[in-house]
Amino acid sequence: MLNKPVVLLTWMIGGLMENVLWISLLLLLGYTLSGRERLAGAGWVMFGFYWLSTPEYYLHIQDYFNVALTLLAAAFSF
Question: Do 59 and 67 form a contact (C-beta atoms < 8 A)?
Fold first, then answer.
């Protein structure tokens, strides 16, 4: 049985958010190549969600400058 489900869940979410970053960048590249605006919109929204997932780490290590930068990047993505 799994002794530490919280650790596993954190690992799974971390990997998921890394995949969200790559998927969002591929959607933005798809927009660049095809010109379909819906791809760009979906790419920017996913890119914003990625940036919203990163301030928690910076708060943990008490790096408040990067917390502000990641929140600012997320705000500009939406």
Answer: yes
Q: Are 23 and 12 in contact (CB under 8 A)?
A: no
Number of domains into which the chain is organized: 1
Choose among 38, 39, 36, 43: nearest CA to 21.
43
* Structural domain boundaries, residue 50: 5-77
Q: How many angstroms separate the Cα of 18 from the Cα of each of 6, 25, 50, 68?
A: 18, 11, 8, 20
> For the whole model, what pTM was predicted?
0.68
Neighbouring CB atoms inside 10 A of 47's CB total 22
pLDDT digits over 6-48, tens only?
A: 555 555 565 677 788 899 999 999 999 998 899 999 999 998 8
